[in-house]
Amino acid sequence: MTQCSVICTRPLCHRIMAKPSSSTPRQSHDIPSPPITYRTLTPEMRAISDSIYPFAHYRSPTPNNFYLDPDNFTCSYPIIVELLRNHPLTPLLTRRVDVPEVYIQQFYDSMTYVEETSSKPAHFKCMVEVIEYELTPEKFWHILQFPGGDFEPDEHLSNDEMIEMIYCLGYAYTLSSLSKFTRNSLAGIWDNFFTILNKCLSSRTKGLEQCGKEMKQVFLGCGFDIRNTDYRYFLWKEFVGVITDKGNPKKARTFVPYPRFLGLIIHHILDENNFDPRTDLPMYPTWSMTRLNDRSSDPAGVIPMQIPQSLLDEADLFSPTVRAYLELSPLPGTPEPETGTPEVSPRRASEGSESYHSSGDDDQGCEYEVSGGDDGVD
């Protein structure tokens, strides 16, 4: 099972300091400032905090909704990090902001989902400090900087289509149903890709080898670089389902889900209302992945799909990591680098178009529509 090293931005209550030598006097700057916690607040500040949301009702912080720091993250397949530096989803993966813990607790507890009516879209009623707010899908997408909105989304993939695409990536076993999918059976490079997306864009704290149907749509849309993937719809639906679960005793979480997204939303609301956030209260933690302690090989018999050229184009093609990948994994049908790389469109092949399979197994191959005239793939 993949383990992920994380960094929590919440200050530690205790720090282990190196013992100074007897010849070196202790300097004041050697002693870190004591962290602000609820228990270190003055009675007056505790009263202010409790007036916003009672400390007795807090949910304990649990790592989820991680953020990616590409400059300080390592994994077995660094090409994946390069792909995600300038991807349309990069803001969703990397953005974070510090907000007081009491705001996160209050905001999450106040969120009430209101169904769509003839006069109003579906939205959340919520509150931060004394500000009441209606979080619509459009505001959610705008605040978190979702891609899309300027194109007509593709039709959603069917279960059978998703299973076929998973085989195409390189998968070790036969899937009797989509729900049986587990990342442990994926080719290593796509395992890395899936894990990063699932940890950053979901609220899961365990069972990260699997995901819901919406997250599978996001993963496959990214992996095959399907530009018109409806990321906005899928992640809003996932977000709504998780938040509204708090009203279901069987599904309610004992922690705050999506704290990084909630922090970005809260920060936007305060800024929009010219409300200065408090800096004298404890901040809510956010968690960064630093490395994946994962396998560096593929399951037996699995041939990984090569990264589509259009997805590689999102990365810096002059990066040593990308150049090394291209030297080891040239695109099929490109015998000489100087002849140019064909443009590979990750769409299901249309009738009469040229196509190739990503592996030698026709039963598990995946077709791509190819354009590029004389430079096309044979």
UniProtKB/TrEMBL annotation:
What's this protein's name? Uncharacterized protein
Q: Where is the composition biased (Low complexity)?
A: 328-344
Q: Lineage of this protein's species? A: Eukaryota, Viridiplantae, Streptophyta, Embryophyta, Tracheophyta
Region annotated Disordered, chain positions: 328-378
